[in-house]
Amino acid sequence: MQQRIKDILHQGQVGDRVTVKGWVRTKRELKECTFVNVNDGSTLAGLQVVIPNTVAAATPAIKDLTTGAAAEFSGELVRSPGKNQTIELHAQQIHLWGGADPETYPLQKKRHSFEFLRTIGHLRPRTNTLGAVMRVRNACATAIHQFFQERGFLWVHTPIITASDCEGAGELFTVTTLDFTSEGNIDFSQDFFGRRAYLTVSGQLEAEIMATAFTNVYTFGPTFRAENSNTSRHLAEFWMVEPEMAFCDLMGDMELAETFLQFVFRYVLDHCPEDMAFFQERIDHSVMATAEQMASQPFARLSYTEAIQVLEKSGRAFEFPVAWGLDLQSEHERYLAEEYCQRPVIVYDYPAAIKAFYMRLNEDGKTVAAMDVLAPKIGEIIGGSQREERFDVLQERILTQGLDPAPYWWYLDLRRYGSVPHAGFGLGFERLVQFMTGMDNIRDVIPFPRTPGNAEF
Ligand code: 4AD
Ligand code: MG
Questions:
Q1: 273 and 331 both lie in a single domain
Q2: Does residue 457 lie in a domain region?
Q3: CATH number for position 430
Q4: Which of 250, 371, 380, 387, when mutated, tests ligand 1's pocket best, judged by the most ligand atoms within 8 Å of its CB?
Q5: What is the distance in A from the centroid of ligand 1 to the CA of 30?
Q6: What are the tens digits of pLDDT across the range 8-64?
Q7: Residues in the chain with pLDDT values less than 50
Q8: What is the residue range of 46's domain?
Q9: Are 341 and 264 found together in one domain?
Q10: What are the two backbone dihedrals, phi and then psi, of residue 274, each rounded to the nearest 5 degrees?
Q11: pLDDT at 127
Q12: Which residues are near ligand 1 (CB < 6 Å)?
């Protein structure tokens, strides 16, 4: 395995002989030597390589060590006289792996807009911001697995292709091998799966199956929604983390959501100090305070009915109407979290009519045991509920929501055989990374965003 720049910067000693491989960020030619900053993606700060003129003279490839070129440097670590680093590499041998034509390489030293960077999705991972985002994203994923594994949750792999609409919202992509050049009605019985199939919007229904065998499980995988929302918080393909717990009610679900988010924020603060400092300085001056608060303070809690009262009394002129029975819009969610509570807030017991069929009906007959975690600036980051475990009530709810019960036969069956109270939630993974890093647009926290009209790279 090759040496990584992160380890060299943290553990390297003066006098060590090292070889680094990476991509040139900058090159400065001075009288006696040339400075090259090289980065291999392991860390924000690259390694400063000093090439003495004697070595440069013997290395014709040096002229091609331009921004974007891939190269290898071997030599000795020395104490750096510069103020930006403590050690640097005095190169004795240089190998150019692949040049990058300075006339056409799009990532020159100046700062580029995130909009522009999205058009060069194959090169933007080499920028400081995307590099920091991807390392924080990786740390979030590691923390998520660690949290659940330490608590005995089984990681289950739910299917990506499915025949049922979990959320019942009809925002499904169809998966087909049928040839659409022919005219007329589509006969899905002739299709690959012998029926109409979709990309999943959530692994929840299958996670519920697994929870009735393994008690505590979680999924972590891609989900797809054909929502035509061109916003800074929506993707057509995003990753979701969905824990599901048997013998658990809404209270237990809310507790898990809170402990879970606190754990992930603490993990990232502990493991990514350099990248978090970068976001604090360059992207959003409040990310460190927010992360610290997320990691250490309890969330606020409000019932939906209380939340509506708060919004009605706020004196705010909201764009969307506020009334009991209407769904909360992002402006309402943000008001509750950012201004009223000034921290994340869990809103629970929503009206049954605006929530999915599987949520457990409360005693009042009007609300369901649902909960959303609303975060400052992002709004909804987690959506979850206790599930309806009573066969008759569930069947009734499927029908009143205008859904065809047929594809849900097995889901209903779970209520016939060993049914127990159970609950779970879904965390939008990109919304978490967005919240963690302070990035404005969700398209900049996933390597290859899929949005209406865009599936490049
Ligand atoms: O609230 P949602 O729709 O809940 C479910 O899908 C449940 N089946 C989860 C469960 O209980 N197991 O979605 C969950 C989360 C949202 O809170 C949001 O963070 C994220 O998924 N999300 C999106 N993220 C990015 N782009 C989109 N289009 C998203 N839609 C939902
Ligand atoms: Mg939701």
A1: yes
A2: no
A3: 3.30.930.10
A4: 380
A5: 54
A6: 999 999 999 999 999 999 999 999 999 999 999 999 999 999 999 999 999 888 999
A7: none
A8: 5-110
A9: yes
A10: -70, -45
A11: 96
A12: 166-167, 202, 204, 225, 227, 234-235, 238, 240, 242, 380-385, 424-426, 428, 430-431
Query: Does 160 reside within a domain?
Result: yes
pLDDT value of residue 326: 97
Q: Is residue 115 part of a domain?
A: no
Q: Considering 86, 110, 134, which residue would you say is the last residue of a domain?
A: 110
Q: Is residue 118 part of a domain?
A: no
Q: Are 264 and 379 found together in one domain?
A: yes
Q: Which residue has the tokens 């499927």?
A: 398
**pLDDT (tens digit, 9 = 90+) per residue, 150-164?**
999 999 999 999 998
pLDDT recorded at residue 1: 67
Dihedral angle at the C-alpha atoms of 133, 137, 138, 140, nearest 10 degrees?
Answer: 140
Q: How far is residue 176's CA from residue 188's CA, in Å, rounded to a whole number? A: 8
pTM: 0.96
Q: 251 near 230, Cβ under 8 Å?
A: no
Cα dist. 357→67, 185, 243, 372 in Å? 55, 30, 19, 16
Q: What is the pLDDT of residue 17?
A: 96
Place of tokens 């807030």: 345
Same domain, 297 and 375: yes
Strands of the sheet containing 379-386, edge to edge, are: 154-155, 216-224, 237-246, 422-428, 379-386, 367-375, 345-351, 300-303
* Same domain, residue pair 181 and 91: no
CA of 456 to the centre of ligand 2 (A): 27
Q: What is the whole-number distance in angstroms between the Cα of residue 385 and the centre of ligand 2?
A: 10
My answer on whether 413 and 317 are in the same domain is: yes
Side by side, which strands form the sheet with 161-162? 161-162, 197-199, 174-175
Sign of the alpha-carbon dihedral angle for 248, 250, 252, 256:
positive
Query: Which atom of ligand 1 lies nearest, measured to the CA of 427?
Result: 15
Mutate to test the pocket of ligand 1, among 431, 433, 451 (most ligand atoms within 8 A of CB): 431
Domain co-membership, 367 together with 229: yes
The per-residue pLDDT for 164 is 85
Please count the residues of the chain: 457
Examine the domain organization and report whether 295 and 222 are in the same domain. Answer: yes
Residue with tokens 């201004």: 339
Phi and psi at residue 445, to the nearest 5°: -120, 10
Quote the pLDDT of residue 82: 84
Tally the domains of the chain.
Answer: 2
The residue from 110, 133, 168 where one domain ends is 110
Closest residue by Cα to residue 156 from 205, 246, 217, 242: 217
